[in-house]
Amino acid sequence: MVVKFGLLGSLVVHDGTEPRPVTGPKVRVLLAALLLGAGHTVPKDTLKAALWGDSVPASADASLANHLTRLRRVLATVDGSPAGAAPADAGTGGRLLTVAPGYRLLVHEGELDADVFDTRIRAAGHAHEREDWEGVLRETAGAMSLWRGTPLADLAPFSETEGPALRVHQLVEARLQALEWGCDAELHLGRHQDLIPRLTSLAAEHPLREGFHQRLMLALHRAGRQAEAFAVFHRLRRNLVDELGTEPGAAVQQAHQEVLAGAPRPRTRPRPRPRPEPARPPFQLPHEGDSFTGRESEVATLRELLDATAGSGGARPGPAGRPCHIRPVVISGMGGVGKTALAVHVAHRVREAFPDGALYADLRGYSVGGARTAHELLARFLSDLGMRHDSLPDDTDDRALLLRDALTERRVLLVLDNVRDAAHVAPLLPAGGRSAALITSRQLLADLPGAVKVPLSPLAEPDQHALLARLCGAARVRSEPEALADIMAACGGLPLALHIVGGRLASRPSWPLALLAKRLTPHQGRLETLAMGTVDVQRTFAMSYLAVRDSHLSLEREAARAFRLLGRLWSGLPVTPQSAAALLDVTEGRAAAVLDVLADAHLLLNPEPDRYAFHDLLGEYAAQRGEEEETPEDRKAALLRLLTWYVEAVGAASRAATRESQSPPPLDEGPPGGGPALSLPEFADDEEAIRWSARELPALQQAVTVAGELGRSDMAWRLAVGLFGYASTHWWTGAWDACLEQAMVIARARDDRLGQAWLHRRLAVAHGMAFRNEACLEHLRTALDLFTERGDLAARASILGNMSALYLQMGDAEQGLVHAELSRDLYRASGNARGEALLLSRFADTRRLTGELDLAAADYRQVIDLLRGDSHGVFLATALTNYGDVLRGLGRRDEAFEALEEALGIRHRMDDHGGTADCLVFTARAHHHFGEWAAAGATWRTCLELAHKHHLTQRIEECRAGLAALPQDPGGR
After folding, report:
1. I want to staple 747 with a disulfide (CB 3.0 to 4.6 A). Which of 145, 755, 894, 938 is the partner?
2. Are 345 and 299 in contact (CB under 8 A)?
3. Of 97-106, 242-251, 373-382, which one has max mean pLDDT?
4. 35 close to 112: Cβ distance less than 8 angstroms
5. Beta-sheet pairing, 96-99 with 12-14
6. Dist CA 35 CA 667 (whole Å)
7. Are 327 and 304 in contact, with CB atoms under 8 Å apart?
8. Hey, is 249 helix, strand or coil?
9. In a 10 Å sphere around its CB, with 0-12 CB exposed, 13-18 middle and 19+ buried, how is residue 850 labelled?
10. What CA–CA distance (Å, rounded) separates 579 from 585?
11. What is the chain's Cα-based Rg?
12. Where are the alpha helices (DSSP H) in 473-536?
């Protein structure tokens, strides 16, 4: 079979005679995604994520269908159809089948280079095990002939996403393993002299890969070049110590011993050294109860890792040809999340893979009484493995060497529980052979060299339900579903909390679930309720907190202060390094380091880059610590700094999103504390600013409330007014209206006239966006009076311009023109050239309304050119929509739809549902105008669905009217 599809390098397609072009980046990514799942159904959602990442547009289904059509044309050429032929679909025997819930690409055996490569690698591995050295060379050469470079090399950023990146890593690792096996074959066939140049190059290219260095040492030694072999060893050792803090592994040490011995050893497998064995293998795993629930994915991952380690003998091919290396496995997570239970559960299930024993130790890394030392545990482990206690050396490092030596030829599982940090556990780890270490820690242990991380999150809701049913009875939890939901929410998915709740209910069969649910109300004794005997959620959290609060490291003590302040002042909302820097009165860099300390200790969650948040229960505990350990003065100062940051940040977002002709004046007072200047977010364009505002909306809403509680009307109204940019695309949610009304209550209570003026001005905009025209006009008139009272020309000009827009929206061209001219005169008087230029759109709107379409088109073109230079997406989309409507009236169909399509693309990109509906209305009218009834109907229905989803009342009525106006017999158009 001829290889027709290539992933090992840039993406290629071959028809058996010559390469076939695959044009268009989206089609190439689509083909790669299907080839990675060749022979299996790839869901549509997976393909959309491959094409658009996290920014899947509303039109994704239609776009995906277009790209699939183009791909089918490419695939037709692979099987001999002429270029340009109609692509075969799922029903005509084509390669690309439509199979719910997605698509399946048929690739026959031998047609995909990556599959052939994997097959060759597996065959090479089997030949290596049989010591069939000619077979090894034959299979590795066949695999290498397919390698054209890094897989998917031309498809970034798709190739850097999680699934493709993992496959690329597997293939790259398989290639390196194959190269090592090929070198073994050459060495065993006595070709060490020819091998030296290639191994020298590979060792230089991979300075930390021990396999190449070990084989280079042997080749040099067998060529009589001992001095160079020693140099290779010492260079590798220096690199490993400097970069990873570890010594070379057993295979390299063995090669080093061979070089030290002088004469080359015969090329046979070394016989194991005799050693004393214990009478029976130690088995020290704790008893496992019968309540372990869920964690299927983590259990499967851990079993695969540990089974592969036990069976690898150092390194041999695993799934997809990737090599298995001896690596510590770290289960990390917050206190109470079930790390120990998972480790013990898995350890019992891999027991057969470790016939030489299982050693267990609780290192007590967070115990108030102090952690157990590696020195004492090494003594215990060595004794358990048969070494006399009185023969142990006094030095810890020497004991660690003895343990590594004792484990080299054994298959022992070490379960090391409650590790404090990497230094705490490093001396206890095996360095080679088939032994494995399974570690649990509240720290990520990111600095533990080569460790595989398996982080634990709280239990999923179905597993929470199953665990409680197991603990206190399925019928009981079914009987009160609402109370059960409240209990699970109060426990936050934490297995420790769920076990306490389940145990308490089991011991009190007469209790209704509602009684316990009430006791678990947040901040009303919930943490005190989550305790039973020696099992106590609060005490578990305290161990983690006290470890950082009482640390000898200043950064960890700062992290404890941040934990207290964030918990007491902002526990229910995420923070960033910038906002935390304001709260803590430190630089952004220092704040980032502090937050990372908390995240590494699982005292904070880090769900996405640069965003940190509390688990609900930990947030309540942190609030208690802040209340008890921080003074009221310090808490208030920190809160005012944070509110000041939000005022400044949302103001910057509003300016970037709207290019507003006038912004509110700055706060009279700066943040308390006199620390570093505030570090504010920077926005490349309006889209970025609006997305930031949408993401921060819950925090901004909370900030308005807190500002009111502190009597800071000046902050409250600026926060609400600053959401202008957010509202430009999200006005339909009603969130902005609510913030403005809340701030208005605060401003009136403090008799804040400036705040009231700005709030009336923005409330008018909110009502206008929602077509509440009378309310809009009332607020505009009030705002105009207040700003006239202050003598603010710029504000009056802007308000008159808004009045013009409102009258035009109401269909009153005369008043629209009058107010536009008044606005223009004030802009000129105040020297605001930009405001005057943007007012041109009002004059264009007037001419469109009065039927002067040629003049309106010319005005809109000027506005569009101005906005393109200004990178202002929202206003540009509005201008393009109006321009498209004018072109419709002029009968210029293609130009009209071109403008409307560009506007719709901007709306989709900015996730602007209200603007999308506006654009769809004008597009439907254009189709209707040109007699394209089917397209008009489809567009009206799309718009109606969107309007219903987002409660766009005005658009719902327009869509229904548009559909009703369509001819009953469209005549096939």
Report:
1. 755
2. yes
3. 373-382
4. yes
5. unpaired
6. 58
7. no
8. coil
9. middle
10. 10
11. 35
12. 474-479, 481-491, 495-507, 513-519, 526-529
On the question of a cis peptide bond just before residue 101, with omega within 30 degrees of 0, the verdict is yes
Whether the Cβ atoms of residue 323 and residue 316 lie closer than 8 Å to each other: yes
Confidence of residue 916 (pLDDT cuts 50, 70, 90): very high
User: Taking the model in full, what pTM does it have?
Assistant: 0.65
Cβ atoms of 379 and 402 within 8 Å: the answer is no
Residue 610 and residue 628 in contact, taking contact as beta carbons nearer than 8 Å: no
> At 558, is the pLDDT very low, low, confident or very high (cuts 50, 70, 90)?
very high
Query: What is the rounded distance in angstroms from the CA atom of residue 577 to the CA atom of residue 559?
Result: 13
Phi, psi of 593 (to 5 degrees): -65, -40
Tokens of 508: 């009190």
Residue 803 amino acid letter: M
pLDDT tens readout for residues 510-544: 899 999 999 999 888 899 999 887 788 888 898 88
DSSP code of residue 317: B
> What's the N-to-C CA distance of the chain in angstroms?
49
Query: Which residues sit opposite 98 in a β-bridge?
Result: 103
* Pair of tokens at residue 104: 């399946």
Distance CA 728, CA 914 (A): 9
| Residue pair 521/490 in contact by the 8 Å Cβ criterion | yes
Write down the residue that tokens 């030392």 correspond to.
373
Structure tokens, 901:
């399509």
pLDDT digits (tens, 9 = 90+) for 770-791: 899 999 999 999 999 999 999 9
As a whole number of angstroms, the distance between CA 534 and CA 529 comes to 13
Task: Determine whether 720 is exposed, middle or buried from the number of CB atoms within 10 Å of its CB (0-12, 13-18, 19+).
Answer: buried
Q: Which residues pair with 103 in a beta bridge?
A: 42, 98
* Beta strand 12-14 pairing with 5-6: antiparallel
Question: Six-digit token pair at 385?
Answer: 């493995």
Please give the C-alpha separations between residue 209 and each of 215, 219, 233, in angstroms, as whole numbers: 11, 16, 12
Provide the 3-class DSSP secondary structure of residue 439. Answer: strand
∠ Cα 146 152 156 (to 5°): 165
pLDDT above 90 covers what percent of the chain? 47
Structure tokens at 187: 């060495």
**CA–CA distance, 941 with 936 (Å, rounded to integer):** 9
Name the nearest CA neighbour of 914 among 796, 816, 770, 813: 770
- Crossing angle for the helix pair 753-769 and 773-790, to the nearest 10 degrees: 150
Question: In which residue are the tokens 């013009």 written?
Answer: 804
* Helices and strands, number each (H, E), in the chain: 43, 15
Alpha-helical runs (H) found in 130-278: 133-144, 162-188, 192-205, 210-222, 226-244, 250-261
Q: Which amino acid is at 154?
A: D
From CA 723, how far away is CA 765, in angstroms rounded?
A: 12
Residue whose entry in the numeric block shows the structure tokens 């901007």: 906
C-alpha distances (whole Å) from 630 to each of 562, 584, 623, 634 are: 11, 12, 10, 6
Q: What is the DSSP string of 225-244?
A: -HHHHHHHHHHHHHHHHHHH
Question: What is the C-alpha separation between 900 and 932, in angstroms, rounded?
Answer: 16
Say how many residues make up the chain: 973
DSSP code of 391?
Answer: G
Beta-strand relationship, 611-613 and 605-608: antiparallel
Distant-in-sequence, close-in-space partners of 446: CB < 8 Å, separation ≥ 6: 453, 600
Q: What DSSP element (H or E) covers 455?
A: strand 452-455
CA–CA distance from 85 to each of 75, 79, 88, 126, 730 (Å)? Answer: 11, 12, 9, 45, 45
Amino acid at 362: D
Angle (CA) 234 239 240, round 5°: 100
**CA-closest candidate to residue 903, choices 865, 925, 876:** 876
Amino acid identity at 205: E
Sign of the CA dihedral running 831, 836, 838, 842: positive
